[in-house]
Amino acid sequence: MATLTALTRGGKTWEPQFIESIDIDTCLGCGRCYKVCGRDVLSLQGVNEDGEFVDEDDDDDDDIERKVMTILNGDNCIGCQACSKICPKNCQSFASAAV
Questions:
Q1: Taking the domains of the chain in order of start, what are their residue ranges?
Q2: Cα Rg of the chain, angstroms
Q3: pTM of the model
Q4: Is CB count within 10 Å lower at the N or C end of the chain?
C-alpha cells in the first residue's frame, strides 16, 4: 500500500501527517493548536474530575474541572502539523494516509 505524498512549492517531496489523536492527560487546554488550525479540525471540550467528557449543553458548569482539546472534524485535516508545532506539550499523534 502506498502513502500519500505531495510536492512543496520548491519541488521537494512532502508526506502529510494527519491528526489521529490527542492525549487529554497531557493537554493543557491552552487553545494554541485551535488558533493555528484554519480547517475547523479541533475543539475545546470540558472534562470532569474523573477524566470523562462533560456535555457542555447542560447548564451545570460545576462539573467541568478543566478543558482539553479534542478532534472535532478529523476529515478536515490537511496534514500540515501546525498544531503540533505550536503545542507546548506535544500531545497530538499523527499518521500518514495510505492510498
A1: 24-95
A2: 16
A3: 0.85
A4: N
